[in-house]
Design goal:
By secondary structure, the chain is α+β, with helices and mostly antiparallel strands. The protein has one domain: Alpha-Beta Plaits, CATH 3.30.70.100. About 30% of the residues lie in helices and about 30% in strands. The protein has 4 helices and 6 strands, in the order βαββαααβββ. The strands form 2 sheets. It has a 4-stranded antiparallel sheet. A two-stranded antiparallel ribbon has the order 5-6. Strand 5 and strand 6 form a beta hairpin. The longest helix has 18 residues.
């Protein structure tokens, strides 16, 4: 499926592989980094930091208003000491992915799944 210009938002995901003893410290550092980026970049809508149960990975999920907003924020990232962050928390691997969000479903008060944004009528999921 090809992303359309009518997508809801742009999602960037970064997965870090770290020693289990560094997981919590990296997660905390990413929260601070996200707060700094959000204070400088209005196009950042939300951030989620997630930790794997086995302690070896941290997933950072950044939701931007659009791909254009993300690209406009690129100078903010250049200023970030990203490689220092990786070295300090002994990251063994980093994977970057990006997606255009076409639909986002949330559970409504009626218990059904409904389109979160972008459609005039709610969609029920199965």
């Amino acid at each position: 499926m090809v992303a359309t210009p009518h997508s809801l938002w742009f999602t960037q995901m970064i997965e870090y592989e770290v020693p289990a003893i560094r997981q919590q410290a990296l997660a905390e550092a990413l929260v601070l980094r996200a707060e700094e980026i959000a204070s400088r970049c209005d196009g950042l809508l939300g951030v989620s930091i997630q930790a794997s149960v086995d302690g070896s990975r941290v997933l950072q999920y950044l939701r931007w208003q659009s791909r254009q907003e993300w690209a406009a924020a690129a100078p903010c990232f250049v200023e970030e000491p990203f490689l220092d962050l990786l070295q300090r928390h002994q990251a063994r691997g980093v994977n970057f992915t990006a997606y255009q969000t076409l639909r986002s479903l949330v559970r409504g008060t009626d218990g059904g799944l409904h389109c979160e944004v972008g459609e005039p009528q709610a969609y029920q999921g199965a």
